[in-house]
């Protein structure tokens, strides 16, 4: 049994990819009591406005973020966007449903800050930061959350990190996909005979 646990632990460590697409994604997760902390970052060549476009495409995030089934704007008011999101997080053999309504403040082309106003998190605060460095972008994410469901110690934190890595990596991949699509010349039509 001990060897099986060690083997599972080793396989989990190997399963975390070092790079996704053309950008290296780095994710760190930790836990203090019931509170989970996560930081993610990636650096890549992209237009700052394209990055912003993807980050604020709330109604289409579920199209490319793994585990997210619903993401939709409920309302916009005085610089705040209210967004409902639903999905699942898988921790080992257990799937936890995630439901959260976020109040999001946008600071155009530089920062996005959100907090949970309802859902199955006792607390959730997230922030995305865009830093332009010549022709490259450094995208950083920082989150602090207290789920309203049990996340097993140690293995739960590792699996949580893995989920965040997959989601953040998918976000970066979508940015790069849209950047590449925008850089492609329009398809030329052949003249009709």
Can you walk through the features of this model?
- This protein has helices at residues 2-15, 48-55, 155-183; strands at 19-20, 23-32, 35-45, 68-77, 80-91, 94-107, 111-119, 121-133, 136-147.
- It has 193 residues and is an alpha+beta fold.
- It has a nine-stranded antiparallel beta sheet, with helices on one face.
- A hairpin with a 2-residue loop joins strand 8 and strand 9 (136-147).
- The longest helix has 29 residues, at 155-183.
- Residues 1-21 have low confidence and may be disordered.
- Distance from N terminus to C terminus (CA atoms, Å) equals 73 Å
Helix percent reads: 25-40%
Instruction: Give the low-confidence spans.
Output: 1-21
In terms of structural class, how would the helical and strand content be classed? alpha+beta
Strand adjacency order, main sheet: 1-2-3-9-8-7-6-5-4
Order of helices and strands: HEEEHEEEEEEH
Number of separate strands = 9
Oligomer: single chain
Radius of gyration: 18 Å
How many helical stretches?
3
- What is the overall shape? globular
Biggest β-sheet, characterized?
9 strands, antiparallel
